[in-house]
Amino acid sequence: MLHLRIGSLSAAMLALSPGPLPLRPPxxxxxxxxxxxxxxxxxxxxxxxxDALEGRATGSHGDLVAMKYVAAQFRRLGLExxxxxxxxxxxxxxxxxxxxxxxxIAGESAALRAPDDYVLVSNADDSVSVARGExxxxxxxIVAPNRxxxxxxxxxxxxxxxxxxxxxxxxxxFDRRTGRPWSSVREKWDEAARRGATALLVADAGPRAIxxxxxxxLMAERIALARQAGAVTLWGWLRDSAAARLAARGGHDLxxxxxxxxxxxxxxxxxxxxxxxxxxxxxRPIETWNVVARLPGRGARxxxxxxxxxxxxxxxxGEPENGDSIYNGAEDNASGTAAVLGAAEAIARSGARxxxxxxxxxxxxxxxxxxxxxxxxxxxxxxxxxxxxVALDVQNLYGATRDIGTVGVAQSSLGAxxxxxxxxxxxxxxEDPDDLRRGRFFRSxxxxxxxxxxxxxRIVNGTDFVGRPPGWGAEMRERYWQERYxxxxxxxxxxxxxxxxxxxxxxxxxxxxxxxxAPAAPTWAAGSxxxxxxxxxxxxxx
Amino acid sequence: xxxxxxxxxxxxxALALVVLAGPRGAAQGAPRQDAAAARPVPxxxxxxxxSAAATAVARGVGAEAxxxxxxxxxxDALEGRGTGARGxAVAARYIAAQFARLGLExxxxxxxxxxxxxxxxxxxxxxxxxxxxxxxxxxxxxxxxxxxxGGDSAAAARGRPVFVGYGLVAPEIxxxxxxxxxxxxxxxxxxxxxxxxxxxxxxxxxxxxxxxxRQYKVEEALRHGAAGALVIWRERAVPASWAQVARAWLDxxxxxxxxxxxxxxxxxxxxxxxxxxxxxxxxxxxxxxxWVSEAGTPGFRARxxxxxLELSATALRRRVRAANVVARLPGSGPLxxxxxxxxxxxxxxxxGPAVAGDSIYNGALDNAAGTAAMLAIAEAAARVPGRAGRAIYxxxxxxxxxxxxxxxxxxxxxxxxxxxxxxxxxxxxxxAFAMPRDVxxxxxxxxxxxxxxxxxxxxxxxxxxxxxxxxxxVARQQDFFGRSxxxxxxxxxxxxxDLYFVxxxxxxxxxxxxxxxxxxxxxERYHQPNDDLSQPFDARYVIPQLRAYARTLxxxxxxxxxxxxxxxxxxxxxxx
Lengths: 542, 576
What we know:
Chain A is an alpha/beta fold.
């Protein structure tokens, strides 16, 4: 599970129900004998979370062992390798970039000073990256047709530098429980890149400004994808004073620009001033891999693939707590990896051969920013089109439940299949508003697929535990977040039970088989903010 | 298989062995091939290998499982599975995860799959002086290598040495080099090899496989009360060069500690190089050739030498953590209290000197393949519920390459009392050269297990490799039976087989081709970084052999009578 990153927005949001989305009738479920032994799941978690794997940090020996373990399991189950050149491993090129930027307002003799006035980093693979151009103020940098908002309406920013405000102007309109994380910097630079901008600067101003100290760590090494497609070359933050100085240079008042940006109908403002930006980067390549296996579809639609994935990496060895320096990541995310392996085993052993293919994936470098899934969504196995994805991240190690949790169940037709699969296992489906409020849809690998337009969701823990008092599940979850999340104590314990994980694996397996056999590929729900991305992707494919 | 190294199996260097075609008289410690000839075997030993349960287990041995385990264990990420190293620990965890996945019972320490084997790494420094008419320092590494036998940090001996010939006590041929000698507190000097190098007819009559080895001679000497023991290295009498011997002993050695090493005699011991031995012989008015001649003559009598030797050695010690991985598949019925063991060592040499830019000694054939085979058979056996008969223990041994230490410790601290362990089968190496027409088990001639193996082989369409055929002669010369984890079991009296990976005939290949492949392997890959996955491990060739092994295992686990050693076999159950 990924840390909330700089640029994500405050937690408090108001409720806005989009109304019930139409439920599709559940697809006919094959009566495949879907089963998985809890001891198998426990064995996977025990291995992956063993101290010998040293917390599976990206680039570490322990994480490499984890990948090889997953590959061995795929091999054992007779699944096809679907990584690079006939192997199970798909290389994910990463680059650590440590920036030394320079930034100058055209016509001014004194350059701005980093990191007092700004921070600026590169997305490119070169040791020197440059952006020069007119600056356009694009409000909050948000385009949300379903919400009646387009900060780029009528604006031409191709080859230019875009300046935006952090966050969003209206947490009711931009309710991330139902929509996209518009407030994240990543969404903002996605949008700017789609419009051809070369750089994105977030002016740390307006109602959602954050303390400047929180921005400065961006000047340290940042590990991200190499060969990143669809990204602005440079991005960073301008301190409010520097942003105001820039605006003033073009004869604008930053405070007034910010006010205008919050109002519907805002139009982007060319500031009439240019910036010259250059980032020299110290580059450090890092090798890691997704682990990918395929159950080939039997039908004409075998080129279409459902993805089930969970990240194999965790955060490695760190500060000791109670003498323990190994951050084992049993729940985060040995549990999810075990679920993927469990589904692979349940499906392989069921003998079911659905129409579409199913790709089983252990993702790399999730903890560094969903990097493995980001790469995978952009680079599916050759000849494969991704049509749906289910991600697993921090699964149930607490015992059997009467319900199953989801994130994103209402967003796409995958949700209806999941509900039907849960029903066939005798489980209610629930979606915790708190999860949505906390933006959990955007904090794991399912989001990489959503950003690429692929309908996706997560299966998370239910709260109604068999043999436990009401509220126990919620308390367990809260204790995980408070006591174990990203700490050495996230490790396998004797009290853990794998009955709940087995339930999740069965629901997951049935959902995948149903989606792989359904007449139509999954689609985002009408009115979903991700639907336009799916349509863009379809159009691009044709 | 550990090198037939003068380091007594504790050498960690690569040893190229030239395979000689055909029998050779000077084979040392040769097993008695004729012991099995036309022995009556109860039908209870053969029918169970063809039972429904055996068939079900054999059919369940899966190619995907074998390949998956092999690929993982031999991957560079496992760093050669060195004992006490990170890669070895990962391998152990992987094996335990497989056992857990299969629902096998943990049979290690405290409800886990791990049987901790505390080891000690030791580096020795030494001093040696010969006082006589001329006082000479013996140069460590050139003239002599010394170590501390037993668990102490230092040992020393001084005085007039006693030459004891081969240092052999072999009642089966009426031989006792210590008969006329009192060596208490003395330094003993012994030749490597056995009298069979002079009289080849003795080879087939010598019972123990290890009479020729340094370790045997040192232990025999110390048991007789000697304070020190030197074994003379000679060209041809010892398969490894002096340089290899010296390097092995200058490298770290590993040993069992604590209760696992109880009873190990204490003293200063080592190797004496041939030129130094010549000087010693000359000081006694003889020559080394004369010594060899005398030592091989029946009635040889030990004698004191007219020089004084001062020997001392100290050990720099470190603790090494290692573990066997042990799982149990329960049996049922009246035999359920008894057990059979299927073993394979999972350790290899770890990371070492680079060869052609590769420093990872993957040990794919030696013995990722055997471990993968054991796991694949375990999976098949675990999927057949309610099998009658003995419990089966699946054991992945550690520190085999360090001198059979994991299996030695297992035999000293077995999870079931040894008298209730009725048999042990070992897999060290898997033959994937081509499709064999025959299969072999070393030690088949010693016990009823050979008959079970033959029935199992036949049920899978294999002939049993004929006795006297080249692969078995090579195994005899190389003493493969004395060089892997079956040995501690056999010595403790448990009937054992070493499931052998070389056949006499292969489909579509000329006769002798298999031994050529073995020769190539031993010369070019054995204990080298290229014993890796670049070698073919074609499941089509491997799985039928594993099915024969599975039948042998199930047959042994279900036969009403436990297997017996044949009378005259070099091993026997201790009197009880």
